[in-house]
Amino acid sequence: MAAVAIGAYFIFHVLTPWAYEFGPVLLLLLTFLSLGFQWKQVGQLVDGESLCFLGALGFYFISQVLILIVHGEDISEFDLSFRYLAAGLVLLFLLVNPISAAQIFLFVGVGGLFTGAYSIYLAAFQDAGRVQSFDNPIHFGNGALALSCLCLAGLAWAVSERRGVLWTGLLGVGFAGGLIASLLSGTRSSWVAFPVLVLLVFLAYRDRLLSKKWLLPSFFVAVVLLPVSLASVDLVEQRIQAAAKEFTAYFEEGVNYSSVGTRLDMYKAGLTAFRKNPLIGVGPAGTDAVVGELVQAGEIHSNVGLFRHLHNQYIDNMARYGLVGLVAYLALLIVPFVLFMKKTRSGTPSVKSLGLGGALFVSLHGVANLTQSLLERNVGVMMFVFAMVFIWAVLKREERLANGATAPVMSKA
User: Fold this and answer.
1) C or N: which end of the chain has fewer Cβ atoms within 10 Å?
2) How many Cβ atoms are within 10 Å of 36's Cβ, its own excluded?
3) pLDDT at position 358, please?
4) Where are the transmembrane segments (predicted)?
């Protein structure tokens, strides 16, 4: 059942509105049904690293809840916060009842394949401008690139497997499918992460790249050719040029009704709200009030008032939750990132690949949130926090097996 839940989550990651909720909800139900009988195993399997992971989730949950209570926010504002608590509980369940690396790489490979095929169909036969599915192109593009990153990370594991050719083919197609879908979505926020993602791949495999004379030049040729190839795609070129023009127009001509201009006005509003209460912010309602005041004063465009968030998670957290909220969000990024990057030094292919996949995933999210507030929407929280939890649980399972465990932990339950 855990495999069904995680499989549905990744295979239909950006294609259907139920997939990102069905998997976590099913796992949370299994958690409530089973953890009462498995606390002994939980105590044995939650090591110091997993405690740090759980601590980052718990800190974000507790800090948000307490600040929302202080600000007297409506009960509906607590909904997103409790999802971090749910993710922590699901992680405990999955540490005891894990799926394998082969299963998760199968799911992301098929997910990337389906996502790429869907986006090509829409672009070729439906004459779609910016490809999307049930939500807006931004979530579609970010989710598609996340699948692509996980497939890319899995390729090094694939070549070490008995059916290496088949695994490499699947993950290669999944990588290409996710990348194509991201490009056809026109999602600029995730494209900015490309240099960071390339650097992480280099750091993870620098020993291998430096040990063979032909690998390092090949790697840098690929790094150079990728942005050149991407820039030649009409939609990519148009979106990049439009962003540059809108940015210039905002500062030189005061044009604040464009996509970039509206975002810059949002950042102005968020920083204004932050200055009112730097420690714990002004809360969601207080942020909305500040936006309303600035719109009425003519200091920002009225379009800003139409959005529920400020399109920058860092500024959003500062406005709503102050420095406490910003630190909590940075911990939510940095702690898992450090833990995942540590695993890229592992000598076990599955652990190394999952570590790289997790680090790429977290980095992509952190960069994309410079122009998005993905954690201010249900879909954004579910697509981020549970993916991290799934990857970490599988990684710890593979690490235990590599360290001498001879049977699946679930057989002891």
Assistant:
1) N
2) 8
3) 96
4) 18-39, 51-70, 82-99, 104-125, 137-158, 165-184, 190-207, 214-233, 321-341, 353-371, 377-395
As a whole number of angstroms, the distance between CA 201 and CA 357 comes to 9
- Where would I find the H helices in 101-214? 101-125, 137-158, 164-185, 188-191, 194-204, 206-211
User: How much is the pLDDT for 412?
Assistant: 40
Which sign does the torsion angle of CA 269, 273, 275, 278 carry?
A: negative
Considering only CA atoms, which of 370, 316, 320 is closest in space to residue 187?
A: 370
Cα–Cα distance, 144 to 126 (Å, whole number): 19
* Encoded amino acid at 76, one letter: S
- Give the count of domains, the chain: 1
Say what the pTM is. Answer: 0.88
> Between these two residues, 198 and 129, which has the higher pLDDT value?
198
The pLDDT score that the predictor gives to residue 413 is 35
Q: Which amino acid is at 366?
A: G
At 90, which amino acid appears? Answer: V
Evaluate whether residue 173 is within a structural domain: yes
In the structure encoding, which two tokens stand for residue 130, read together?
């910016």
The two three-digit tokens of residue 389, written as one number = 């939890």
Q: What is the pLDDT of residue 220?
A: 63
Give domain status of residue 255, yes or no. Answer: no
- 162: its two tokens: 């008995």
Residue 411 has pLDDT above 60, yes or no: no
Q: Is 157 part of a structural domain of the chain?
A: yes
Within a domain: residue 380?
yes
35 alpha-carbon distance from chain centroid: 27
Q: How many helices (H) and strands (E) does the chain have?
A: 18, 0
- 110 vs 117: CA distance, rounded Å: 10
Which residue range forms the structural domain that includes residue 161?
2-32+45-213+348-403
Environment class of 311 (CB within 10 Å of its CB; exposed 0-12, middle 13-18, buried 19+): buried
For residues 138-142, average pLDDT: 86
